Amino acid sequence: MNWWQATVLGITQGLTEFLPVSSSGHLILMREFLGVWYGDFLMFDLLLHVATLVAIVMVFHKDIIKLFKPPFKVALFIVLASIPAAIAGFALSPLIRSVFYYSATYLWAFFLLTAILLLISEMYEKRQTPKAFILDNINGAKRLFLKRREKAERLAEEAMLKENTIKAENALGAKLLINDTDKRAVNDRPYDDTQAGGEDCAERRGLARFFWNKNKNHTNTAFAKKGACPKSVTDCSIETNGNNPQKDNDGNGAFLPDLKLKHALAMGLMQAVAIFPGVSRSGSTIFGGVMTRGKRKTVAKFSFLMSIPVVLGALLVDVIDVARGAAPAAAVIPWYAYVLGILLSFVVGFFAIKFMMRLISKADFKWFSLYLFGLSILTFVIFLPSFS
Predict the structure, then answer these.
(1) How far apart are CA 137 and CA 131, in angstroms?
(2) Which of 84, 159, 264, 333 is 20 to 30 A from 204 (CA-CA)?
(3) Where are the domains positioned within the chain?
(4) Interatomic CA distance for residues 292 and 260, integer angstroms
């Protein structure tokens, strides 16, 4: 493994570990394309997982501290949710590692499963039938296209109106100056505001000067935007939606108060399904939480927190494999490849968590679902000869 292969694998691990697209499936794909085999670099995989685990702890360190404070409800739910994955891991780990981790043949099926789970969770949360879901997205695409076109037309109209207004004001100002000059020429004497008619001329000349000063810097004049806040802070009312990312309690100090036992159990069962490469752990657990009518943001945060013991368990298994000699010596990979892979996995993973937590409360999972549908078709076509 050279430095650029380590770079690609580190970025892939960090980016896909926390998005609902399956990091294990993407790593297998990358290894296939790069010619890097899983069994030959087990130590490298172990360190990549350590890097993403550190990223989780860094982002959720305050929430992790809350787990060890009374009433310990969330900590207990994490323990219960980890049991199904632990049982499935010990029972199926040898089979999964020997069959699925060394080949991309079956990835298309697991990518397809994840895509279906995300799509179902989206429809269920919106209480839509498949037909209504499709029509709603078609209409949404139309509205987005029309909205962009209307915005472009409105900006063009505003620009034209602005240009015409400037031209009219400049013409009026020039006319007033010309009239004032003509009057002075007819009188054949210097202009004096104190003489008859002086006040009227001074007024016209002041108006012309106003237009000139106003329009010579017209590029700095901003049209008022719809819904814009006044310059004065006192005139602006700040609207809030009640979603403060720094607060996850109900005002009484309870951590994740909306989380219930049924959410934790459903998410734990779905996490056990995610031991297969290509099935997204975050996507499947969020599916379990949404299907039991959990709030999306609460479910997403709990999904990340419950991944910590699972990742630790997977690391323990890898350490045991390394101790048994299942992985080659560290000298097989240059030290700088280790550094690049670990650093990129941590940095990309850190920002991927931040991105996912912002995305979860305002975006649809259908885009990830569409991506996985396409990836499923692609992997099926590419690795179809493997069936023979």
Answers:
(1) 10
(2) 159
(3) 3-130+267-387, 134-219
(4) 9
Token pair for residue 253?
């100090």
Closest listed residue to residue 284, CA positions, set 85, 130, 92: 85
| Contact of 8 with 345, CB cutoff 8 Å | no
Other residues' Cβ atoms within 10 Å of the Cβ of residue 63? 16
Interatomic CA distance for residues 315 and 276, integer angstroms: 16
| b/e sequence 11-26, b meaning 16+ C-beta within 10 Å | bbbbbbbbbbbbbbbb
Q: Judge if pTM exceeds 0.85.
A: no
- Helices (runs of H) and strands (runs of E) counted in the chain: 13, 0
**pLDDT tens string 30-88:** 888 888 776 556 678 778 888 988 999 999 999 999 998 888 899 999 999 999 999 99
Question: 328 is written with which tokens?
Answer: 């080659």
Instruction: Report how far residue 255's alpha carbon sits from residue 66's, in angstroms, rounded to the nearest whole number.
Output: 7
* Burial (Cβ within 10 Å: 0-12, 13-18, ≥19) of residue 253: exposed
Output b/e per residue, 187-217; b: 16+ Cβ within 10 A: eeeeeeeeeeeeeebeebbeebeebeeebee
DSSP class of residue 387?
G
Instruction: Specify the length of the chain in residues.
Output: 388
